[in-house]
C-alpha cells in the first residue's frame, strides 16, 4: 500500500477514537465521567484486535479487546447491523463491575468489520455499598450487578425494558440512563465514521491498511525492544493488605527480554485473597500492557500490533488472576498499580533509562452526611484532593500531585472553593507536603498535606478504599521509596485515630478534622548523585 | 483622505493595512522586530505612508483609528520570558497554580519533565486571612503577615504581584486591601488582584489567570507604552486599540491592565475578518444549494450541531495557514464561538477567548520518516531561520513549501512579489533525500507531503466543525495567510465542503479584520450562596449592576452606541460543570432563568430534568461599543482577465501545464475552471481539476470544489 494513503488512514482512525471520546466527555451526566474522565474508547477489528485507542485511562489500554471478543463469541453468527451490546462482568469481557462496556459492530458486506467499544465507569452499580467499592466484599455478588454480553438494543435503539431493569439495580438510575445514552451516542458516532471510511476507501483497502498499521506498530515496538539487552529479571511489589487480615500480598514478575519480545510471567504471585484487591484476567493483561506502554516511546501506537511484542503469563487462582466469583472491584487501581510496579522493578535492570520511579497509590474516602445549609438532604462527597506524586525518571523529577500509576495525570480533582460552597467542608490546608517525595538522583513528585474540617449537621460517615499506607511509592534504579500515605482523623479532644485503607462506616463528629499526608512519587537513581543545584532549588522552594 | 489602520505583528512579517474613506485597502509589510515589536510597527506604518505617497506624519495626521494585534503576551508565555512575578495567597493554599488540578498532559509520556510554574513557590507567599464562600470573614486580613510578605517581595525585587485569596469571588475586600498596601510599598510594581481579573469561583482558573496576568503584564504594558509614545511622537492623535483574545478591541490602558486577555490577540484578527465577511454575504449561499455533493447534512449527534440546526446554519471555517502553524476557527451565523478553557504555553487563562484550534503545521513544517515507519509532516518546523530549503538560508530538510515548489505550484521568481527568490534545486535535493528513504521519486514524495499536510489540515477542520457538531459540507472554508490557497481546495474536497473563499486580500486579512470589530468589556460575578437561585429582586439588581459596570467602562472609552448582553453559567444541583446560557431577551427572574436553562440543557444534551434544582453559579454581562462601519469599495466590473502564461505542475492526475492568472486582474463575475493557478504578490491559489471558481465583486475568489 502506498505510504501516503497508509498515513492518512492511520491519522483518520486515531481521529475517530478521539472524536468519540470528545462526544462522551461532553454529553456524560455523572461527575465520574465528565469531571474525572474515567472512561475509555477503542476501535477493534472484526476479530477483536485493538486497532486504535484514545489516550484516556491507561489501565484500560489492553482490556478493551476482551470486551469485543466476548461479544463476538457470545453472538457468533447472530450479530446484525444496528445491534447494541453491553457487558461488565470480569469473567465475560469486563475488568470490574463499575466499568460498563458498550460494543457496537460495524458491518461491511455482511461481516462485522470493526467494533466500536465504549467503556465508562458508573457512579453506582448496585451491590452492598454505595459507589461501587465494597471493602467488605468477599465474593463478586456482593459487589454489584453482573452483566454478561447482552443484546441491549436492535436497529440502533436500546430496549427500554432492559434499560429499566438495569437502572433499577443501581442507586442513581437517572445518572445511569443519562450516561448510557451518552455512551451509545459516542459509539454510534464512531460506527458512522468507520462506515464512511470503509465506503470511501473500500473495505478491502481499509482492512489491508489496518494490517499494515498493526505490522508497523509491531515493528516499531520490537525495534525499541531490540535496543535493550536480552535477559531475565525479577521484580516484586506488595499490596498493604486485603482488608480481611492478609497483609503484604506479593505480586512477582519475571520479565524475559529476547530480541523483539518481552515476556512477563506473574505466576509466582501470591494466591488470591478474600478481599476486593484480586484482579480479573483482562485487568491483569491490561495492567501489564500499561507497564509495557510506559516503557516504550509515547509515540508508539497503542494497538494490537504494538502489544504483539508482549507475552503475558499468569496462574489462575493467584491474586492477579482470580477464579470466577472472587471479589475484584478495587483491581483497576489495586492490584493494577502493584502489577505495574513489579514489572518496572524487574525492567529497571534491563532499561534503566526508561524505568521510572513509582507513582502513588490510590486512597479514596467517600463521605456522607447532612448539611445544615441544605436541610433534609444527604450529601455524598468523594475525596480526589491531596493526590499522590508521580515518579522521578532519567529526564527529571516527578510531577507533584499528579496521581497514580493507573491514571498518571488523567484524573482531575475539583475546586476547593466549589467544594466548600457545596458541601459542609472547610479546607484549612491543602499544599504540597515537604519531604513526601522519594529521594533519588531525580526525586519523585510531592504528595500533599490536607486538613479538612468536617462541618456536617450531625455525625458524618466515611468509607475508605485504597492502599499504600504501609508501602510507599517505589524507588527505582537506586532511588528511594517515598514515605507511605498517612490518613488520620483528629478528634475534638486532640487525639488521633489513624484511618485504614479499607474501612466502612467510620463515624466523624462535626468539627473533627481529616488529616491527609499523601505519598509523593518514588525516586529514580542514587540520591548521592543528585545535582546540588536541584537540592538547593528544592530547599529554596521549602520542599525538603 | 482619512484612514483607519490595522496592524498585525506576525512571527516573520508585520502587516499594516490602511483603509481609506472610499474603502480602498492598502497593504504594507515590514520585517517583524521581536526585541521591540514597535520598531517593526513604525517601519510598517512608514512603508504604508510611502505606498500612499505620504509622509509618516501626514498619514498619522489623517488617521482616525489604529487597531493593533500583538503577540508580546503570547511570546512571553511560549518562551518563558515574562516578568519576575510573585503571588500573595491565602495561608495554607500556596500551591494552587503548581498542582494544576492533578492533571498532566501526554498520558503515556511518563518521562515528560514537569514545567516550572510561572511563579516559583518561594515567591508565592502566604498571608494570614480567610473568607468563607458566603463572604463571611473566618480570619481577618493579618497586616503583620502581609507586611512580612511585602518585605520579602521588596528584597526579591519583583516586578509584578498577583494577589490571589480564596473566595475573593464572593468578596474582594481582602485582595483590594492587600493590593493598596503593596502598591504603597512597592511603587512601580504591576499589581493585579484575582477578583479583578476573573471575579468567579474556582480558584485554579482564577489564580492561574491572575498569575499569567502578572507574568505578561509588565512586558505588555512596557511594549504598549513604547508604541504609544512612538506614535504620539510621530504625530498620531488617533485612539489606539488592541484586539483581545475574545475578538473585541480595547484601549491600550485596559489592554495593559488585562494583559492576559491579549494572549490570542494575534490570531483573533483573522476570525474578526471572517465575522465581517459574513456580514458581507460570505457563507450565505452555502445553504442555497451550491453544495455539489448532493448529500444532505448528516444527523448531528453532538451538542452545538442540534442547536445549529435551529439557526440559519451559515458556517465559515477560517483557515489561516502560516509558516509554522495554522489557526482554524468556526464562525456561525456571523458570530465566532468562545471558550474559557484556553491554555497558552501550558498555562490556563480562563478569560473568554475565541475557540481557535492551532495546528503545529504550516508551510515550514518538516517532512520526515517517522519512528513508526510512516511518512510524517511536522511538528518540527524550519521556522523563519533557516526556513525551507528553497529559501537558501541553510535549511536542508524538506518542508511543505519545498514540496509545493517541486510540484510547480509556486513560482520561484515571484514569491512575495519577487522579494524572495526560491531555490528550486535545493528544494528538489531536500525532498529527494526523503524520497529515497521511502523508495519514491522526488515528485511522488512531494505529492505525498502535499497530500499528508492536506489530510492534517482536514483533520483540523474536522475538529473545528464535526467535533463541535457542525457538518462541514455546508460550510465555507475561508483561506488566508500566505500558504492556505495551495491547500484549501484539496482540504475542502476531503471534507466534501461546498465552498472555498480566498480573499484577494488574503495576506493582510488578519490586520484588516481588526478594523471590523467592536469595543468590548466583559464582567462576571459568581453568586453561589445557600439558595440555588437568588430572589427575583436580587437577580434583577445583580444583572443591572453588572450591565451598568460594563456600560460605564465602555462609555469612558467611547462616545457612540453601546450594546449590552447578559448570560449566566448554571447547572443542575448535582452536576459538576456549568452550562453557559445566553439571557438576551430573557426576564431576569427565577422562572426566566430556570426556563432558559432547561431549554439550553435540552438543546445541548438531548434531555432536561424539570424536577431538578437549577443553580446559578456565575452571572455575566458584556458591553459592546459599536464602531463606525468600515467603508466598502465599489465593485469594479471590467473585462475578464486572460492568463499571464502557463506553468508545469504535478497533480495527482499527472504533469500538466496550468494557466496562471493574476489575482488582481480578475474581473468581478469572471469565472475560471480548474486546474489553474491564481497568484498575487502575497498569495497563490491552486484550483484542482473540476473546480469552478468565480471572482466576487465583494473581493474574494469563490471556489466550488470538484468532487474529490
Secondary-structure map:
The complex is a heterodimer of chains A (544) and B (708).
Chain A: H1 3-27, H2 31-34, E1 39-45, E2 50-53, H3 64-74, E3 84-87, E4 99-108, E5 111-121, E6 150-154, E7 157-158, H4 160-168, H5 173-201, H6 203-226, E8 231-241, E9 247-258, E10 261-265, H7 281-295, H8 304-307, E11 310-313, H9 336-347, E12 363-370, E13 378-382, H10 416-422, E14 425-432, E15 448-454, E16 460-466, E17 486-490, E18 496-498, E19 506-508, E20 513-517, H11 532-540
Parallel strand pairs in A: 10-11
Antiparallel strand pairs in A: 1-2, 1-5, 3-4, 3-6, 4-5, 6-7, 8-9, 9-10, 12-13, 12-16, 14-15, 15-20, 16-19, 17-18, 17-20
Chain B: E1 3-9, E2 13-20, E3 25-31, H1 37-51, H2 56-61, E4 63-69, H3 72-78, E5 85-90, H4 96-99, E6 124-127, E7 130-131, E8 137-139, H5 143-155, E9 160-164, H6 173-185, E10 190-193, H7 194-197, H8 203-233, E11 240-243, E12 249-251, H9 252-257, H10 265-279, H11 303-310, E13 315-321, E14 326-332, E15 335-336, E16 338-339, E17 342-344, E18 347-349, E19 353-354, E20 357-359, E21 365-369, E22 375-381, H12 400-406, H13 424-438, H14 442-464, E23 476-480, H15 488-495, E24 499-503, H16 509-514, E25 519-526, H17 536-555, E26 562-572, E27 579-582, H18 590-605, E28 614-625, E29 645-651, E30 654-662, E31 671-673, E32 676-679, E33 684-687, E34 692-695, E35 700-704
Parallel strand pairs in B: 1-4, 4-11, 5-6, 5-9, 9-10, 13-23, 23-24, 30-32
Antiparallel strand pairs in B: 1-2, 2-3, 7-8, 11-12, 13-14, 14-15, 14-20, 16-19, 17-18, 21-22, 24-35, 25-28, 26-27, 26-28, 29-30, 31-34, 32-33, 34-35
Helix pairs in contact in B: 1-8, 3-8, 5-6, 12-13, 12-14, 13-14, 14-15
Amino acid at each position: 500500500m502506498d505510504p501516503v494513503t497508509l498515513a492518512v488512514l492511520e491519522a483518520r482512525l486515531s481521529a475517530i477514537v478521539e472524536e468519540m471520546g470528545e462526544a462522551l466527555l461532553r454529553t456524560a451526566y455523572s461527575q465520574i465521567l465528565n469531571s474525572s474522565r474515567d472512561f475509555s474508547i477503542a476501535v477493534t477489528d472484526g476479530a477483536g484486535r485493538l486497532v486504535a485507542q484514545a489516550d484516556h485511562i491507561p489501565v484500560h489500554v489492553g482490556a478493551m479487546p476482551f470486551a469485543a471478543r466476548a461479544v463476538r463469541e457470545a453472538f457468533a453468527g447472530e450479530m446484525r447491523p444496528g445491534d447494541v451490546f453491553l457487558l461488565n462482568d470480569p469473567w465475560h469481557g469486563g475488568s470490574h463491575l463499575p466499568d460498563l462496556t458498550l460494543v457496537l459492530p460495524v458491518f461491511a458486506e455482511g461481516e462485522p468489520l470493526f467494533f466500536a467499544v465504549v467503556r465508562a465507569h458508573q457512579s453506582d452499580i448496585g451491590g452492598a455499598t454505595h459507589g461501587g467499592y465494597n471493602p467488605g466484599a468477599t465474593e463478586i455478588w456482593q459487589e454489584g450487578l453482573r452483566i454478561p454480553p447482552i443484546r441491549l438494543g436492535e436497529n440502533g435503539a436500546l430496549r427500554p425494558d432492559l434499560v429499566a431493569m438495569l437502572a433499577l439495580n443501581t442507586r442513581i438510575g437517572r445518572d445511569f440512563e443519562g450516561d448510557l445514552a451518552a455512551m451509545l451516542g459516542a459509539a454510534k458516532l464512531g460506527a458512522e465514521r468507520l462506515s464512511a471510511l470503509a465506503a470511501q476507501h473500500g473495505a478491502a483497502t481499509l482492512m489491508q491498511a489496518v494490517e499494515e498499521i498493526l505490522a508497523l506498530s509491531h515493528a516499531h515496538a520490537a525495534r525499541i525492544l531490540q535496543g535493550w539487552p536480552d535477559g531475565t529479571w525479577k521484580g516484586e511489589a506488595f499490596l498493604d493488605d486485603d482488608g480481611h487480615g492478609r497483609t503484604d500480598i506479593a505480586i512477582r514478575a519475571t520479565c524475559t527480554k529476547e530480541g523483539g519480545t518481552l515476556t512477563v510471567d506473574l505466576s509466582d504471585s501470591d494466591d488470591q485473597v478474600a478481599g476486593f484487591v484480586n484482579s480479573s484476567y483482562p485487568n491483569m493483561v491490561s495492567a501489564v500492557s500499561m507497564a509495557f506502554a510506559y516503557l516504550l516511546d509515547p509515540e508508539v501506537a497503542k494497538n494490537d500490533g504494538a502489544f504483539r511484542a508482549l507475552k503475558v503469563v499468569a496462574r489462575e487462582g493467584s491474586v492477579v488472576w482470580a477464579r470466577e466469583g472472587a471479589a475484584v472491584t478495587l483491581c483497576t487501581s489495586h492490584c493494577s498499580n502493584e502489577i505495574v510496579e513489579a514489572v518496572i522493578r524487574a525492567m529497571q535492570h534491563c532499561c534503566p533509562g526508561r524505568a521510572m520511579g513509582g507513582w502513588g497509590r490510590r486512597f479514596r474516602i467517600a463521605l456522607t452526611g447532612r448539611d445544615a445549609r441544605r436541610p433534609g438532604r444527604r450529601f455524598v462527597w468523594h475525596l480526589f484532593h491531596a493526590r499522590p506524586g508521580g515518579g522521578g525518571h532519567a529526564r527529571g523529577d516527578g510531577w507533584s500531585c499528579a496521581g497514580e500509576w493507573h491514571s498518571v495525570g488523567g484524573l482531575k480533582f475539583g475546586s476547593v472553593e466549589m467544594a466548600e460552597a457545596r458541601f459542609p467542608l472547610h479546607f484549612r490546608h491543602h499544599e504540597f507536603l515537604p519531604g513526601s517525595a522519594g529521594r533519588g538522583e531525580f526525586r519523585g513528585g510531592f504528595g500533599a498535606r490536607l486538613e479538612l474540617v468536617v462541618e456536617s449537621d450531625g455525625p458524618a460517615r466515611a468509607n475508605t478504599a485504597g492502599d499504600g499506607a504501609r508501602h510507599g511509592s517505589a524507588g527505582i534504579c537506586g532511588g528511594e521509596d517515598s514515605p507511605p500515605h498517612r490518613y488520620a482523623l483528629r478528634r475534638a479532644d486532640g487525639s488521633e485515630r489513624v484511618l485504614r485503607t479499607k474501612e466502612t462506616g467510620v463515624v466523624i463528629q462535626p468539627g473533627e478534622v481529616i488529616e491527609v499526608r499523601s505519598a509523593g512519587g518514588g525516586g529514580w537513581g542514587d540520591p548521592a548523585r543528585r545535582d546540588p543545584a536541584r537540592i538547593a532549588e528544592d530547599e529554596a522552594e521549602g520542599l525538603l | 483622505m482619512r484612514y483607519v489602520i490595522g496592524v498585525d505583528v506576525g512571527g516573520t512579517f508585520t502587516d499594516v493595512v490602511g483603509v481609506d474613506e472610499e474603502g480602498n485597502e492598502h497593504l504594507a509589510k515590514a520585517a517583524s522586530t521581536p526585541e521591540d515589536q514597535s520598531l517593526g510597527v513604525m517601519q510598517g506604518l512608514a512603508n504604508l505612508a510611502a505606498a500612499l505617497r505620504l509622509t509618516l506624519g501626514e498619514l498619522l495626521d489623517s488617521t482616525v483609528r489604529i487597531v493593533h494585534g500583538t503577540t508580546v503576551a503570547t511570546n512571553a508565555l511560549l518562551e518563558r520570558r515574562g516578568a519576575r512575578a510573585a503571588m500573595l495567597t491565602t495561608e495554607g493554599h500556596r500551591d494552587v497554580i503548581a498542582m494544576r488540578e492533578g492533571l498532566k498532559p501526554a498520558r503515556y509520556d511518563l518521562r515528560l519533565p514537569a514545567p516550572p510554574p510561572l511563579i516559583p513557590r518561594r515567591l508565592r507567599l502566604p498571608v494570614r486571612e480567610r473568607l468563607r464562600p458566603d463572604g463571611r470573614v473566618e480570619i481577618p486580613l493579618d497586616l503583620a503577615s502581609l507586611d512580612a510578605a511585602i518585605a520579602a517581595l521588596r528584597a526579591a525585587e519583583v516586578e509584578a504581584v498577583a494577589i490571589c485569596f480564596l473566595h475573593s469571588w464572593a468578596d474582594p475586600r481582602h485582595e483590594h486591601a492587600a493590593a493598596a498596601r503593596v502598591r504603597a510599598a512597592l511603587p512601580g510594581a504591576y499589581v493585579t488582584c484575582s477578583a479583578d481579573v476573573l471575579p468567579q469561583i474556582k480558584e485554579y482558573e482564577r489564580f492561574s489567570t491572575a498569575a499569567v496576568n502578572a507574568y505578561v503584564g509588565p512586558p505588555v504594558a512596557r511594549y504598549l507604552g513604547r508604541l504609544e509614545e512612538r506614535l504620539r511622537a510621530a504625530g498620531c492623535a488617533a485612539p489606539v486599540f488592541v484586539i483581545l483574545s475574545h475578538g473585541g478591541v480595547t484601549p491600550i490602558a485596559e489592554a495593559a491592565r488585562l494583559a492576559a486577555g491579549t494572549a490570542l490577540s494575534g490570531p483573533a484578527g483573522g476570525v474578526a475578518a471572517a465575522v465581517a465577511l459574513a456580514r458581507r454575504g460570505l457563507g450565505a449561499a452555502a445553504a442555497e444549494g451550491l453544495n455539489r455533493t448532493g448529500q444532505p447534512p448528516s444527523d448531528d449527534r453532538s451538542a452545538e450541531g442540534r442547536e445549529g440546526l435551529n439557526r440559519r446554519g451559515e458556517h465559515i471555517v477560517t483557515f489561516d495557514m502560516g509558516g509554522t502553524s495554522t489557526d482554524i476557527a468556526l464562525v456561525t451565523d456571523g458570530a465566532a464561538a468562545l471558550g474559557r478553557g484556553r491554555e497558552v504555553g501550558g498555562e490556563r487563562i480562563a478569560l473568554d477567548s475565541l475557540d481557535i484550534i492551532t495546528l503545529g503545521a504550516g508551510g515550514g513544517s518538516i517532512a520526515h520518516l517517522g519512528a513508526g515507519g510512516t511518512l510524517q509532516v511536522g511538528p518540527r518546523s524550519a521556522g523563519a531561520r533557516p526556513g525551507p530549503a528553497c529559501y537558501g538560508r541553510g535549511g536542508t530538510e524538506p518542508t511543505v513549501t519545498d514540496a509545493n515548489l517541486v510540484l510547480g505550484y509556486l513560482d520561484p521568481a515571484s514569491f512575495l512579489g519577487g522579494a524572495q527568490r526560491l531555490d528550486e534545486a535545493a528544494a528538489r535535493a531536500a525532498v529527494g533525500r526523503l524520497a529515497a528513504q521511502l523508495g519514491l521519486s522526488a515528485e511522488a514524495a512531494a505529492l505525498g507531503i502535499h497530500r499528508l499536510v492536506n489530510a492534517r489540515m482536514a483533520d483540523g477542520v474536522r475538529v473545528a466543525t464535526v467535533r463541535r457538531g457542525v457538518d462541514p459540507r455546508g460550510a465555507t472554508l475561508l483561506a488566508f495567510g500566505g500558504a492556505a490557497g495551495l491547500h484549501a481546495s484539496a482540504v475542502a474536497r476531503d471534507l466534501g465542503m461546498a465552498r472555498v473563499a480566498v480573499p484577494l486580500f488574503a495576506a493582510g486579512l488578519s490586520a484588516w479584520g481588526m478594523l471590523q470589530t467592536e469595543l468590548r468589556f466583559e464582567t462576571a460575578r459568581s453568586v453561589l450562596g445557600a439558595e440555588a437561585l437568588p430572589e427575583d429582586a436580587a437577580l434583577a439588581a445583580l444583572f443591572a449592576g453588572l450591565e451598568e459596570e460594563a456600560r460605564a467602562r465602555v462609555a469612558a472609552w467611547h462616545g457612540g452606541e453601546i450594546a449590552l448582553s447578559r448570560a449566566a453559567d448554571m447547572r443542575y444541583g448535582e452536576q459538576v460543570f456549568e452550562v453557559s446560557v445566553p439571557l438576551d431577551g430573557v426576564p431576569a427572574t427565577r422562572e426566566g432563568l430556570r426556563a432558559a436553562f432547561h431549554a439550553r440543557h435540552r438543546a445541548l444534551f438531548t434531555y432536561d430534568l424539570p424536577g431538578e434544582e437549577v443553580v446559578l453559579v456565575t452571572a455575566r454581562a458584556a458591553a459592546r461599543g459599536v464602531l463606525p462601519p468600515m467603508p466598502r469599495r465599489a465593485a469594479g466590473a471590467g473585462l475578464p482577465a486572460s492568463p499571464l502564461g502557463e506553468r508545469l505542475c504535478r497533480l495527482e492526475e499527472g504533469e500538466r501545464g496550468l494557466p496562471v492568472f493574476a489575482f488582481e486582474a480578475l474581473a468581478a463575475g469572471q469565472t475560471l475552471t480548474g486546474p489553474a493557478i491564481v497568484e498575487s504578490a502575497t498569495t497563490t491559489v491552486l484550483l484542482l481539476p473540476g473546480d469552478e471558481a468565480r471572482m466576487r465583486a465583494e473581493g474574494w475568489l469563490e471556489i466550488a470544489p470538484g468532487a474529490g
